Amino acid sequence: MKKGELTKKLIESNSSLFMCPLCGKGMSFIKTNSLLCQNKHNFDISKDGYINLLVKQVRSDYNKKLFKSRKIMIQSGFFDPMLRVISDLIIEGNLNISISKINILDAGCGEGSHLINIISNLEKRNICSLGIGIDISKEGIHAASKQYANAIWCVADLSKIPFQNNQFDIILNILSPANYSEFERVLKTGGLLIKVIPSMKYLIELRDVLFEGTSKHTYSNDRVINHFDDNFGIVNNQQIIYKACLNNENIEHLINMTPLTWNADREKIAELINKDIKRITVAFDVVVGQKRR
Ligand SMILES: C[S@@+](CC[C@H](N)C(=O)[O-])C[C@H]1O[C@@H](n2cnc3c(N)ncnc32)[C@H](O)[C@@H]1O
Predict the structure, then answer these.
(1) Measured from the CB, is residue 139 less than 6 Å from ligand 1?
(2) Residue 98 Cα to ligand 1 middle (Å)
C-alpha cells in the first residue's frame, strides 16, 4: 500500500477524534477521501495523505528549506537527548499505560520527525501510540506526510485544534507557540502536556557571533515558563544542556533551521560559517503539566 493510502486508513479508523474547525460538529470519513461534518463542511485528504483543516489559509515564514534543514539536523542526532527525556517522561508519567494505545498530539509538529522518533522510542518499550501532528505550515505538514505514513498529519491552527474534547493522553509542544485553553480542552483527565522551551544558553555560540552588543544576545525563558505555570501548573521541569557536534555541512543547516537567523546580518552569517564552530550548546527546559479534572 502507498504511503498516502496508509495515512488515509489511519484517518478513517480514527475519524471520531476529529471536530469540524468551522462549526464544532463531529466528522466522518467518506469514501471520496475526505472528512465531512454533520453540517456538511468538507475537508479533502491530499494524495500524500494529510488533511488541511485550516479555516483561513495563512502565510508562514516556516518554509520548505527550513524544514529540510530541520529534518537533517534532527536525523543527525542534534535533538536526541531532548527526545529521550520526553520519551522517558511519557514512560514514567502517571498515565494509564495499560490502555491499549495512547493518543499523542504534537502541536506545532513542523516536519514531523520529533513525533515519529518519540513514537518509535515508545514502541521499543512496548507502548503503542497513535501520533497526530498538527502545524499551521502546509510546507511542514506536506514534508511530514511525504516522509512518514505511521501518523496522522493535519494543517491546523493550535489555537483552534480540530479534535474533540478529552481525546489525548499526551500533548507535545516542542519549540512552538502554545494555546493552553485548547490544550486543556483536548487532553484527557490525567493527561500530560510536555512543552520544550529553549533556555538561556541555547545556541549561545551562534548568538555570540550574530547578536553581540544587541538585546538579542541574551535570552530568558522566565516569561514563557511563568505563563505555562499560571495556565497549567508545572508538575515537573527538566533542564537539559549538552554540546552537539557540528561539521561544515550542518552548520549551514543549523543556520537555516532556526528562526534566530531570520533577520540576522548577512555578513555576520558569513562570519559564523567561516568560524568553523565544532560544538554548539543545546539547552532546554522540558516543562510538564497535568490535567487534573
Ligand atoms: C521552531 S518550529 C518547531 C517545529 C517542530 N516542533 C520542531 O521542533 O522541529 C515552530 C513551529 O510552530 C508552528 N506554528 C506556529 N504557529 C502555529 C499555530 N498557530 N498553529 C500551529 N502551528 C504553529 C510553525 O509553523 C513551526 O512549524
Answers:
(1) no
(2) 31
